[in-house]
Amino acid sequence: MSTLTIGVLLxxxxxxxxxIRVPIAVAMFVPGVVGYVALSGWDPLLAHLRGAVYGRVSxxxxxxxxxxxxxGGFAVNGGLSKALFDFANSLLGRFKxxxxxxxxxxxxxFGAISGSTVATTATIAQVAYPEMRRIAYSGRLATAALATxxxxxxxxPPSVTLMVYAILTEQNITKTFLAAYVPAILAALGYLVVxxxxxxxxxxxxxxxxxxxxxxxxxxxxxxxxxxxxFVAVFGGIYGGIFTPTEGAAIGAxxxxxxxxxxxxxxxxxAVESIRTTAVTSxxxxxxxxxxDMMNAALALSQLPNQLAxxxxxAAIPPVxxxxxxxxxxxxxxxxxxxxxxxxxTVPVIFPVIMGLDFFGLEASDKALWFxxxxxxxxxxxxxxxxxxxxxxxxxxxxxxxxxxxTYKGVMIFLAWDFIRLALLILFPGITLWLVHLLT
Length: 440
Description:
Blueprint lengths: L2 H17 L4 H17 L1 H16 L6 H14 L3 H12 L5 H17 L2 H18 L4 H11 L2 H4 L4 H9 L4 H29 L12 H9 L2 H15 L5 H18 L5 H35 L1 H11 L4 H15 L5 H17 L8 H19 L7 H9 L5 H24 L2 H10 L1
Helix pairs in contact: 1-2, 1-15, 2-3, 2-15, 3-15, 4-14, 4-15, 5-6, 5-12, 6-7, 6-8, 6-11, 7-8, 7-20, 8-20, 8-21, 10-18, 10-19, 11-19, 11-21, 11-22, 13-14, 15-18, 16-18, 17-19, 18-19, 19-21
């Protein structure tokens, strides 16, 4: 049996394990071990494991992940979400569908400090969904808007997925963060337009608009100063070169803890829960790291990544078509895997392929940043794409009065914009790279 055949069989073995609901880390680690032994033997495997596990989890840059997650945990349990939604609603309530639009913007703002798609969806939905239903929004529009808005947690820094990509591909985290902003803003603005179109096509799905008074807007604005302070302090310091992303994450976690504590919104029990959740999730991520490293080591021995890169490089296929096919592959893969596992497993294999192709004459660093944002965009699509959109399941757990099929019907118009946006990002890399070139 050739090494290439072994590599393909290992990948199939991994997908089978995932299909029978074996934990992701184990589903990657076991085929990796089997493949490594088949290709190299037991002694090389033991020698590899002796240093590989410690080498992976002892990387200093990885500390940015639990620190930003802790900041998000304090924000979630410290009750910062309601003020965001109230402020956004005071600005957009004058438009038909304005509360759904407010949910999108609140998700975007909260995602910029939580870094988690699921946390963003669950937190904003708990505040926004009851209000939307109370004033007669349809279940379809309410759940679809909030599930879609929650994907902003993966699009905006400090997205955990984005940080993992930067670490895996050895990119500057600050530049990677900058590359995400314009595509994320484009996503949010597009969602607002989608809602405006939807409520005109289906006027019965949203109530008539009600404009807030100046006093109501001012009162709502006064409640969002903690979030503005945290964002400016953390990301202003990072982009201003005052401190590194890891230091910024530590400052952000500390600042969020102090503010929510002073506001008496973060109890001891909630603080402990934030720390516990961060520890559990970080442990899960690191285990996935170890499993993915084992699988990628076996695939490297099989020469599958190199042969795939050579095959594509010598094929008479336009690079843009190759990118479109890769993005479609990620959409399909998102139906069976979470975004973290997709990144850890596929990037070491696909990244060399991308770097070996010429896209619009981009330099290597620009190409790496651009590809990272494309992957991030597809991960966000996967969060609401049927039949396994995780955000839809989270939303369904909070909105038990709305059948899941109704939410999926609602997200279709948002997915239409997502695919249009993905095409724009592929065809016009400048959308992603403009801010990076402007500020660095």
